[in-house]
Design brief:
37% strand; mainly beta; disordered N terminus; single chain; five-stranded mixed barrel; 234 residues
Amino acid sequence: MRVPHPARPASATALALGAAASLLAGCAGPRSDEGPGSSGGEAEASCAAALELHGRTYLGHGDLRRDPEVTGRRLDVLLPGCANSGGQDDPVPERTAEAEELAEVPAEVAVLLHDGLYVREGADLPRAARAWFTAPSCEHGGEVDLAGTWLGVTGPREPRSDGDIRPPYRIDVEVTAGPAAYAGASVTIRVTGDTDPVLTADDVRDTLWEGGQVRARVGCDGEKFVASSVRSAG
């Protein structure tokens, strides 16, 4: 498993490259699968990650690496306004949205909004929720095919001016298709000099910046995911 939400950065995910994780400006695209009630936009991204439900305040919590199960029930929540509107002249007004009820945690403790987890002030998540914040390790034999939403890329080399990325680098992917153990999780896939084909500058512009999909054939190097091939899926 966005504002970038503290739960899972995506709608403003940066393309990070360089030894000091220097940012390649502009490499951020909105997710095409923003959650119910999402209004999106840069102004919303500048507000604090908070909401109100039944008069109680909930704050954005952690960095989700797996998608929690939800019941399908929607909850009307209030998103407070804020004066800091990402450089815009007008403040962001107070607005409403629909959060999702979690299957394993009561709404009095936490809810899901735009794929971000929000926890009521003063409440503690149950122990079972810890698994949501841990990405799965690579544990399959041989190679398998994974597909998912491309969230970002990091590597040790400076990017070229056209956005070209050269192995080795690591891509962060939210898995939408593949073995059940990885479905709905965010994983890091290593692209090496042996990976063929690899992603291109066009893929960076047309896929990462637009929140598109990638497909990779991956094997395990210990607990790490390593791609023998990776392609843009549009």
